[in-house]
């Protein structure tokens, strides 16, 4: 037995109310051809089974469901967006351009933030590497200091041998990695390395386990990773093409992360269903009498007979009337009727009144 299976519903359509509406239409005989309606939904997903009467055309029943229920919905789109703080009605191209401008702004601001944080962190690690190069002198200075505040000041006042930090800073470029607000008199100078206040605080906060050789290697690796990030951020900010590549890559990631196929179908053109869409296509026999009486009968009413069969009357006529026209046509075909005055009138074959073989039909003039 043929059935319609509903696995997804349009946006904001409630399944229980839809099933109730279909059942109501079937009970009221406004929806023909349905014998059973079952809700088989479970944890694996939605499934509503609509069983059809034998011989029913599924497309016609589906069109009736579209016409009389919310199984198909139409949504109007009013694409209003904020452009430079002002609401504007946007076309698709304008909407995409506004979105890309917004993404450029977001990615630029985010990159500036990441760059600032990376510079600050690299600055701290740079100071820690210099401190580890001078660990003995540094510990002695701290031990002689009367308080943490005086120890911090003493660290900042003295110029320290940079050691391996010279290669680190030279390789990365001191100006590129220098955080904003740090004067040129601090960091690597001709007299040695001078700590900033932030570096001095971080050095005093160092835990003893960070003084091991293994931790020194970790600090160096972290510093080199930050330098690569800083170079990447500067490249994005200085090259518009790099910025576009970042935006494109992030959009691709979103597409791949949420690339499940649509369950409901979105169509570009919506055509309102007509009465013709709700009528099954079938072949019928159309008879028109000389007196102008017309009717239509399903082809299945007549069966082939063998030799010797008595035949079957196609219509009942009155008086001297007789069948003038008899032809087979599809219910969706168009019937052209020419009057004695030379005018032509048209109607669909399904509009010709149905009648039994024993009926004479209705006057075609009506």
UniProtKB/TrEMBL annotation:
Classification via PROSITE patterns: TOPO_IIA (PS52040)
Q: Which GO terms describe its molecular function?
A: ATP binding; DNA binding; DNA topoisomerase type II (double strand cut, ATP-hydrolyzing) activity
Q: Please name the GO terms of the biological process aspect recorded for this protein, alphabetically.
A: DNA topological change
Q: Which reaction does it catalyse?
A: ATP-dependent breakage, passage and rejoining of double-stranded DNA
Give the EC number(s) under which this enzyme is classified. Answer: 5.6.2.2
Domain named Topo IIA-type catalytic is located at 1-278
Show the GO cellular component annotation of the record: cytoplasm; DNA topoisomerase type II (double strand cut, ATP-hydrolyzing) complex
- List the InterPro entries: GyrA/parC_rep (IPR006691), Gyrase/topoIV_suA_C (IPR035516), Topo_IIA-like_dom_sf (IPR013760), Topo_IIA_A_a_sf (IPR013757), Topo_IIA_dom_A (IPR002205), Type_II_DNA_Topoisomerases (IPR050220)
- Alphabetical UniProt keywords: DNA-binding, Isomerase, Topoisomerase
Task: Respond yes or no to whether keyword Isomerase is given for this record.
Answer: yes
What enzyme category does the UniProt record give? isomerase
Protein family (similarity comment): Belongs to the type II topoisomerase GyrA/ParC subunit family.
The name under which this protein is listed is: DNA topoisomerase (ATP-hydrolyzing)
């Amino acid at each position: 037995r043929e059935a319609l299976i509903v696995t997804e519903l349009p946006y904001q359509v409630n399944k229980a109310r839809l099933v109730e509406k279909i059942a109501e239409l079937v009970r009221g005989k406004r929806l023909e051809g349905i014998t059973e309606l079952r809700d088989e939904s479970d944890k694996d997903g939605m499934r509503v089974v609509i069983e059809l009467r034998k011989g029913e055309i599924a497309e016609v029943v589906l069109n009736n469901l579209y016409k009389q229920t919310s199984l198909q919905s139409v949504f109007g789109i009013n694409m209003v967006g904020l452009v430079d703080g002002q609401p504007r009605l946007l076309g698709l191209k304008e909407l995409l351009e506004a979105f890309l401008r917004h993404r450029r702004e977001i990615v630029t601001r985010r990159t500036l933030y990441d760059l600032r944080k990376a510079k600050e962190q690299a600055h701290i690690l740079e100071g820690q590497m210099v401190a580890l190069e001078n660990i003995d002198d540094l510990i002695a200075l701290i031990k002689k200091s009367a308080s943490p505040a005086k120890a911090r000041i003493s660290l900042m006042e003295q110029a320290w041998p940079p050691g391996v930090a010279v290669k680190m800073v030279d390789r990365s470029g001191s100006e590129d990695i220098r955080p904003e607000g740090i004067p040129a008199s601090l960091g690597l100078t001709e007299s040695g390395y001078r700590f900033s206040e932030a570096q001095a605080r971080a050095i005093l906060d160092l835990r003893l386990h960070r003084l091991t050789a293994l931790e020194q290697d970790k600090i160096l690796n972290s510093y080199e990773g930050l330098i690569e990030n800083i170079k990447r951020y500067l490249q994005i900010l200085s090259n518009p093409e790099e910025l576009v590549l970042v935006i494109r890559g992030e959009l691709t990631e979103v597409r791949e992360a949420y690339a499940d196929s649509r369950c409901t179908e979105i169509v570009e053109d919506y055509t309102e269903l007509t009465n013709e869409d709700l009528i099954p296509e079938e072949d019928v026999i159309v008879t028109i009498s000389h007196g102008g009486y017309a009717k239509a009968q399903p082809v299945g009413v007549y069966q082939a007979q063998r030799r010797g069969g008595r035949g079957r009357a196609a219509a009942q006529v009155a008086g001297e009337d007789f069948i003038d026209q008899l032809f087979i046509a599809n219910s969706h075909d168009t019937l052209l009727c020419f009057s004695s005055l030379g005018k032509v009138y048209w109607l669909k074959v399904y509009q010709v009144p149905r009648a039994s073989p024993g009926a004479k039909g209705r006057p075609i003039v009506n």
